[in-house]
Amino acid sequence: MSPKLTQPPSDYSPQIPLQDWSSFKKLPDTAESIVDSIMLLRDENDMLRRMAASLSVEAEDIRQSLSSTKSTGLPV
Known about the structure:
This protein is mainly α. It contains one helix and no strands.
């Protein structure tokens, strides 16, 4: 059973929006440029993982510092 239309078909917007392809930059078209992009992304990913680990350690240190200050009432 098909749904009933409440408006004429011309009033419905398309289900898939049309893309304006003129705004897209030219994509890399060689295997070398694709490999270079992947390597740069891996390097950036590694750097972000190291930063996240460092921030996690720092956050844990702050949490422990705050919990010891709260329990004793005096800074440690």
